[in-house]
Each structure stands twice: as C-alpha cells, then as structure tokens.
Amino acid sequence: MRERPRIGVTLATVGVDAAWWLDSARRLDEAGYAAIWAWDHFVGKGDRRVPVLEATALLAAAAAVTTRVTVGSFVMNVMNREPSVLARTAGTIHELSGGRFALGIGIGGHRREHTAYGIPFPEPPERAARLEEAISVIRALWTGGPATIDARFYSLHDAYAEPHREPPPPILVGAQSRTGVGIAARAGDGWAAEMPFFEELLSFYRESVDAAGRDVSAQRIVLGFNAGRSGEEALRDSPWVEAPGETWAEWHDRGADEVTVTARTPADIARLLHAAERW
Predict the structure, then answer these.
(1) pLDDT 10s digits, 89-146
(2) Strand 70-73 relative to strand 147-150: parallel, antiparallel, unpaired?
(3) Where would I find the H helices in the chain?
(4) How many Å apart are CA 186 and CA 208, to the nearest integer?
C-alpha cells in the first residue's frame, strides 16, 4: 500500500467561528490529513474588528476532537506569551492529545497587533535573541524540572513542570531569514518554512544544521503554502486539490518532510475532503 502524502492543513483563525474550525479539524483528521495547524494572531491584519480565534485554546479543543493528526501552531509568536507559560500550556495540549502536539514558534511580525495589546515589539535582532532563549526555557520545563536558568531575557528558579510526557513535543522554528534559519538549525527540531524562503534558504539551513553538529536527517521541515485573504477561498484550482499526490511528491523531492496548505472557507474544506479520496 502506498504511503499517504504528508499533507497537513492550516485552518484560518481570522474571520471564522470556532464551530467551523473544530468541525473542519475533525473531518480532516478522519480524511487522513497529517496535521492541523493554527495561526497565532489576536487581531486581523486588515479589518481588526473581525473575529479572531486564540490559538492555544483552539489547539486544546482540537486535541480533544481528533484522534490521529498532529495538532500544532504555525507559528506561535514568541512575544505573545512568556515562554514558561507557553511551555505549560503546550505541555498540557500535548498531554490532552496523547502526544500529538507540535510547537511552531517564531519572532512574530505584526506590529499593530502588539501596539493594540500593549505587547512589547522590539526590533528583529532582540526578538531573535528572545526566541533562542525561549526555546531553552521551554525545553528545560519539558524535562519536568527542577530547572534553573538565569539568562538575558528569561529566568527560571527551581521550576517544576508536571505532568510532562516523553518524548516532548517537537519544536519547529518559523524562519524567513538567515538569522532565523540559524536558530532553527541550532535550537529547533526542524524548520517551519514558507515559500519563497524555503527555496532561498534550504541549502543554508542544511549547512547550518551540519555546522551545529546535528543530524540533518533527524530534522523536520514543514513547508507552508498560504493563499488568499480572510474570507476568501484559498484552494480554488489549487494543485493540492487537483493533483495532491503528484504535488506532494514534487515538494518532498525538493526537501520538504511535510507540507501544510491553508484552508479559509467551507468550500476549501470540501475540496480537501474530495482530494483525499483520490490519494
């Protein structure tokens, strides 16, 4: 029997309601998709009055209504939550899912959102430094503790975090620059990549993993394909619907271990369900 393509779905969290999101997650799980991912936003980039669902609450609920898929963030913004709190939240979702959670995390990039919520938004070099520190804090807490860290931005003092599950969730670093890819190579379990940065930075990522003394084959690249705007269909005439197996094989050959395609509407979900029947 041919192995199913490693195709996941990033369900839009902007301009949608929770009932649609969870029902879509359940149906995609049953259809055989590999993963369900959620964005991490508090407001939309266009009309900031549209509904926006919070990622960690969604993923906890998704863990309860699915049985097989990975549930994860594509990607969390390191500035939105203290890493110690995120580690506890993510650890609980991992427990709820029976070990199916994956943490995608990056430096963020929506300044107006930060301004609206009073969340600090330093320049990219500081956010990158915070990201690398945050990953060390999260990993320390995922051992269960005790953990003590005295670093530039974040500290732990004799901290315990139970329950913790082995193995812990994989950490995928969202990166669109050489700096971010370097962090993914040194500190992550993989790279949450997006086009066109994947093609531009893949060789550098592999070189950086090797330079860090890590095994490239043990790392995981999840490649995201995003399309459309809030409320718009993202998958009309998409190759991920028209020829999913062939399209997956092409991008797998180019270096992706898994892909995720964006779904924004009921029509997108219907197309994905139909496409899964032809794998």
Answers:
(1) 999 999 999 999 999 999 999 899 999 999 999 999 999 999 999 999 999 999 999 9
(2) unpaired
(3) 18-31, 55-65, 83-96, 111-117, 124-141, 178-187, 197-211, 239-242, 244-254, 266-276
(4) 7
Going by their DSSP bridges, the two strands 155-159 and 147-150 should be labelled as antiparallel
Confidence of residue 167 (pLDDT cuts 50, 70, 90): very high
Where do we find the tokens 């999260």?
138
**Residues 244-270 pLDDT 10s:** 999 999 999 999 999 999 999 999 999
| First and final C-alpha spacing in the chain | 11
Residue 2 scores a pLDDT above 90: no
The CATH classification of domain 7-276, taken from the options 3.20.20.30, 3.30.390.50, 3.40.50.12160, 2.40.160.40:
3.20.20.30
Domain ranges of the chain: 7-276
Rg for the chain, CA atoms, rounded: 18
Which of 10, 12, 9 lies closest to 265, judged by CA?
12
User: Using CA atoms, how far apart are residues 23 and 21, in angstroms rounded to an integer?
Assistant: 6
Residues 222/172, Cβ–Cβ less than 8 Å:
yes
Q: Say what the pTM is.
A: 0.95
